[in-house]
Specification:
Neuraminidase, 2 domains, Immunoglobulin-like, mainly beta, single chain, 4-stranded antiparallel β-sheet, 287 residues, elongated
């Protein structure tokens, strides 16, 4: 009997340890916003992306509200359903009434479900509308260097220019300089296939998955590159002396034959066709 009791006690201890190891994670969730700051004109609205990540098997309805918002600022939607194990992403719209005073407000988005409460900080700048409506009032930050190109992707604006300058911003208002790894003039930038691609003088090509960390790639040309676009699973860069380069990933580039020696200054993709334009009125197309 003593041997049996010792075996039973050991089995019970092992069972308790197993339950403690595997059953200690209570249902929970995390909350994040991208971007974390918005600039909205009076009488208009702005959007940020909300991500709720369930943990420990959490499911259910998460109710949303604004904390610290002035009267006249409303949030939509006010609830999100979590039904699976993966993150849930929704666009949150902040509507600003025409009577809301201009200024910057420090808000929080509050998410509650049962006894769980999470918050995420959100800065809201309310501006006066321009005389001709939205899009007519422009703010010029003093950045110092000449900027050549700008693109938006993955919740981030990326601007490039002379001296290898790269700036990033979540809202187009507050900008942060980034180390590019080159001093060459940067001219064009695009986002596609999960990464930013920048092109510039001396055949410079840079790539980044997040706009912050940049890698210099081998382009296979020394010609200045003036433009880059992503479409139909392909990056296409164009430049001087009729230069055209293509890449499926922004890393491995192939020099193509354009049929012209004229400088190519811009490229776009749409309606199933790449279109490049350049000096002397040249226009090139490719499917």
């Amino acid at each position: 009997m003593k041997t049996l009791r010792l075996y039973g006690a050991g089995l019970l201890a092992a069972l308790v340890l197993t339950l403690a190891a595997h059953g200690s994670s209570s249902p929970n969730f995390t909350l994040s916003l991208n971007p974390t700051s918005l600039t909205v004109q009076q009488g208009s609205s702005g959007t940020t992306q909300l991500t709720i990540t369930p943990q420990g098997g959490f499911t259910g309805t998460v109710n949303l509200s604004l904390v610290g918002a002035p009267s006249g600022v409303t949030l939509s939607p006010t609830s999100v359903s979590v039904t699976g194990s993966g993150p849930v992403t929704r666009n949150l719209t902040l509507s600003v009434g025409s009577g809301v005073a201009t200024g910057t407000y420090t808000l929080q988005v509050r998410a509650t479900s049962g006894s769980l409460t999470k918050t995420a900080n959100l800065s809201l700048t309310v501006s006066a509308p321009g005389g001709g409506g939205a899009g007519t009032t422009w703010t010029l930050p003093n950045l110092g260097d000449s900027l050549e190109g700008v693109a938006y992707g993955n919740g981030l604006f990326v601007a490039v220019g002379y001296g290898g300058i790269i700036l990033t911003s979540p809202d187009g208002v507050s900008w942060t300089p980034r180390a590019s790894g080159t001093g060459n003039r940067l001219i064009g930038v695009t986002h596609g296939n999960g990464r930013f691609v920048v092109v510039g003088a001396k055949g410079t090509i840079l790539t980044s998955p997040n706009g912050v960390n940049w890698t210099v790639q081998t382009s296979g040309t020394g010609n200045p590159l003036n433009g880059v676009v992503y479409g139909n699973g392909l990056f296409v860069a164009v430049g001087w002396f009729g230069a055209i380069l293509t890449s499926p990933n922004g890393v491995n580039w192939t020099v193509q034959t354009s049929g012209t020696g004229n400088p190519l200054n811009g490229v776009v993709y749409g309606n199933g066709t790449f279109v490049a334009v350049g000096a002397k009125g040249i226009i090139l197309t490719s499917p």
